[in-house]
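Progress note, sequence design subtask.
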């Protein structure tokens, strides 16, 4: 598929944000992003007209009940079967922050045996309240997530976080089993890290929310559904990075470009 023909659906809801930043990132890569309110998507039910589905961050419906829950139930009721068909087609589905919460609530992540009827994980209250700052990430996926194959494994990435409910947790009675399955299926994507590249080991501030096993992002077993709490769209251009003003030759792009470029290249090759 030619890059100029790739169509991205960015679905938003009341309270989501980072929509414009995500649109701009995809536009810079030469694809066709389209930002639509979820109510319109629910009416048209045409997900398969697109090649990438992106659920942005924010605070959909004010995070009442719990983060992402209301928007997730809307999606499940109105376009649940269409989302399943989209996932089964192998096309990328990406949820960042609030979008990650939606994918967990709808059962697409971690999705050990396909979409789960009951959530298999949760993104709970952060141990240090709302955090809006830069953190470090380390990619730990070994290749199962082909859509992020272009994200380097030998670099410590810097993305910002902006959430109060992002603590990745698993059911206490199945925690060891589910962590083992995440490793066996190569579903772990990113873990919070220190400056020297070692993992945060649950320690704040490197782990900003107390996430179990420092987990910042995961994928489904097939590798085409991705969820992460940090925001790559807020680190796409070089001038957005925290060190930009101190560089002798400022970089045009930031660490977030790896993420978006990898997704687009995957669609170019695959479809």
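Output:
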């Amino acid at each position: 598929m030619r890059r100029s023909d790739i169509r991205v659906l960015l679905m938003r809801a009341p309270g989501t944000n980072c929509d414009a930043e995500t649109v701009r990132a995809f536009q810079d890569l030469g694809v066709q992003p389209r930002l639509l309110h979820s109510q319109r998507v629910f009416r048209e039910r045409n997900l398969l007209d697109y090649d990438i589905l992106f659920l942005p961050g924010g605070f959909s419906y004010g995070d009442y009940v719990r983060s992402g829950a209301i928007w997730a139930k809307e999606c499940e009721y109105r376009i649940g079967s269409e989302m399943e068909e989209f996932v089964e087609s192998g096309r990328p589905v990406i949820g960042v922050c609030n979008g990650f919460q939606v994918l967990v609530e709808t059962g697409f992540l971690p999705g050990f045996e396909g979409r789960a009827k009951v959530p298999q994980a949760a993104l709970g209250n952060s141990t240090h309240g709302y955090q809006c700052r830069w953190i470090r990430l380390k990619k730990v996926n070994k290749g199962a997530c082909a859509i992020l194959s272009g994200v380097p494994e030998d670099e410590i990435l810097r993305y910002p976080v902006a959430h109060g409910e992002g603590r990745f947790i698993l059911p206490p009675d199945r925690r060891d089993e589910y962590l083992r399955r995440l490793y066996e299926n190569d579903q772990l994507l990113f873990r919070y890290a220190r400056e020297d590249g070692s993992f945060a080991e649950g320690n704040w501030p490197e782990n900003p929310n107390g996430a179990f096993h420092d987990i910042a992002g995961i994928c489904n077993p097939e590798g085409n559904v991705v969820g992460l709490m940090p925001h790559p769209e807020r680190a796409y251009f070089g001038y957005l990075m925290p060190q930009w003003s101190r560089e002798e030759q400022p970089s045009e792009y930031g660490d977030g470009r790896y993420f978006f470029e990898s997704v687009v290249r995957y669609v170019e090759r695959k479809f």
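The domain at 3-270 is CATH 3.40.50.880 (Rossmann fold). Work on this subtask will continue into the next period as scheduled.
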